[in-house]
Amino acid sequence: MAETTLSGATHPILENDYASEWMGIEVLALSDGHATIRMTLRQEMLNGFGMAHGGMIFAFGDTAFALACNPIHPAPGEEGTITVASGVDINFLKPAFRGQVLTAVADRRSSAGRSGLYDIQIFAAGAGSPASKSQPSSPGELIAEFRGRSRTIPKK
């Protein structure tokens, strides 16, 4: 699998996630209700205009969303549940291009019962990005905002 480990622990939802493996997603940080991931845009992730395909940006944000919703180690009594998307919205703000490094930062905004609300910001840096030149430690320019609504359901 791709680099999907953090401090030697593999997140259980990535063990058989072949889409995230193909995308080359790397987990940078995980905590309760939070995830930070990154990947580099490759040629096969581009659309006919030479920019990142919207579906790639969406899938990348969706992975960060899933990681923020599902703990590495479920609490006692929660082992038989998973948290999935009940709905999402995405706003594409700027294009991203081949060679840029994308970073997604997902944070829980609210949780009540089996429902949650998460915001995911997606940034692009590198490959000539102005943000990467002025602020090397910055995740780059904000290119998309993803809002996810979650629902915890029984595992099947």
Automatic annotation (TrEMBL):
Keyword Metal-binding: no
Entries under NCBIfam families matching the protein: unchar_dom_1 (TIGR00369)
Record keywords, A-Z: Hydrolase
Protein name, as recorded: Phenylacetic acid degradation protein PaaD
Stretches the record annotates as Disordered: 127-156
Organism: Arthrobacter liuii
Domain Thioesterase: 49-126
InterPro entries with a match to the protein in the record: Acyl-CoA_thioesterase_PaaI (IPR052723), HotDog_dom_sf (IPR029069), PAAI_dom (IPR003736), Thioestr_dom (IPR006683)
Keyword Transmembrane appears in the UniProt entry: no
Classification via CDD domains: PaaI_thioesterase
